[in-house]
Amino acid sequence: MEAVLRHLNNILELLAVSRTDRVREWDRPTTQRAFKWAEYCEQLHSRYQSNPTVRSRLESGLTDTNRRLRETFPSYSPVEFSELAQCQHKLIVYLLRNPSSPHFIIEMLFPDQNSPSQELLAPQNSLVTRKSAFSLLCCTVNTTSSYYGLQTEPEVRGKLLGKLLNSILARPGNEEHAKCLLDSVRCDSAGKVDGFYDVIAGALLCSSDESQRFIITWLKESDGGLNTFCTVISPEVCAVISRQSPEFRKLYWGALKQWASCLEYDVTKSVWVTSEGAVSFDVLADRLRDLINSGESLKEETETALKALTLQDGDFSVKGVSVWTDLTLQLKI
Questions:
Q1: pLDDT tens for residues 111-124?
Q2: Are 37 and 9 spatial neighbours (Cβ–Cβ below 8 Å)?
């Protein structure tokens, strides 16, 4: 029993370290051993959960170790006996959340299916990895810093979602599984639309071409999904995705045209007004401006499209007749 208690103590120390910057010192063999210990921890729970005498000693050992680790690591979260059953899950989530985790950990958790020789972590042959990653994708977004207008956590979760989709879609016939993953993440976003679509944007920015096309198709086929995405995601991020993906660029332009068609000119106020739920003239102009400022190729394409739309409307040179004329004047093209 003393040996078991020492092992349990070591496992809790391992979980505590996995949340610190010391994890950057781990190499692949160390990471493999960590998951072996986590698996052993789950076996302990399974073996002794129905043994009152042994369980009591283990719980006492947990209390002592939790107290000591809380004094050593200020951010340490105590581990209860019932949580030992999900030790691999906790280790995966801690490592995925830790910015100091070595890059190879993602590769070991979500390997390239085309590289069968790639070293895998213990839980790869089960659902543990996907369930852990899924729970991380669905948790509350923490808005700390930004990247391309995205907060850090949605960007990281987007990368993780992209990795999951890459792994699923690498095998033929798995499209339905990939669709279920996206549907599940949306359903479990607890109605926080902005946070969910930020994660989708992060996935689009970081995923493979195949996964990117799959996400775009899913958005297009979702009821109102594409329009909501284009509305809540910042102009800067939409412009970056447009630069990366011709498919998204075409659909994004469709949304811009639809929004423009909802604008009407108020002669009494000399302004363009919109119906409820549609974007304003100024927002539309900002989105077009970001497309123009996103590289020479996208600039030329956007200016050419604006000129064609202005010509299609009659090529008027006065304000208040054509929204495209006024947008072109606003952007000083």
A1: 554 554 445 554 44
A2: no
